[in-house]
Design goal:
It is built from 5 helices and 3 strands, in the order E-H-H-E-H-H-H-E. Helix 2 packs parallel to helix 5.
């Protein structure tokens, strides 16, 4: 920054949770129906975890406070929030032939949302080999769970974004993130089952 006094910066805030948190709150991690954790991610928090959400909000507040009190604060134009799979707020990738998230927080949250249990992995995986256009009568439970998953990710992201704005205490700075891969829905990529 000293070499380029006219340059402005945007800081990324990662919401990855530390190993100590993961070790302490294993029941707050997104898990398969059999209770196992996806092998693809070391810290796959459940988006329904209020404990994880509060931890992230605390971290955001501390990070912004630190940065806004730093000597380079006037050079900061904004903050960029990353989290979830690949930092783009997608739900975690499950192990092969399995689905997520059957954690206690997610089971309770989905029951409160729908009055129902989460559909089994076997049911969610079958879907007549169709991942996008589901018969609304036959697959109502899976459609409802996909909608719930998208809403839970968006709800967390909105809450964390609000925390970023409140932490700025009225300062006019840009805040943003990656989210909304709806253009990929026609492809057989499963984004619609990953919270987007």
């Amino acid at each position: 920054l000293n070499a380029h006094p006219d340059r402005l910066i945007m800081l990324e805030i990662s919401t990855s949770l530390p190993k100590e948190w993961v070790d302490k709150y294993k029941s707050e991690l997104a898990c398969h129906e059999d209770g196992t954790i996806s092998p693809y991610h070391g810290k796959p928090f459940s988006y329904a975890s209020e404990i994880a959400r509060q931890e992230m909000k605390n971290a955001i507040q501390q990070f912004i406070k630190y940065a806004e009190e730093a000597p380079y604060a006037s050079r900061i134009v904004g903050y960029f929030l990353s989290g979830g799979m690949t930092g783009e707020w997608a739900y975690w990738t499950p192990a092969r032939k399995k689905m997520l998230d059957y954690s206690d927080p997610n089971k309770k949250a989905f029951k409160a949302y729908s009055g129902k249990d989460i559909p089994s992995s076997a049911r969610r995986l079958s879907r007549d080999k169709n991942h996008v256009l589901l018969d609304p009568v036959k697959w109502e439970d899976c459609i409802q769970f996909n909608e719930y998953t998208s809403e839970s990710v968006a709800d967390m992201l909105i809450d964390l974004g609000r925390t970023m704005q409140e932490s700025l205490k009225g300062k006019q700075k840009v805040t943003g993130t990656y989210y909304g891969y709806s253009c990929y829905l026609p492809l057989d990529t499963g984004y619609h089952t990953h919270g987007h």
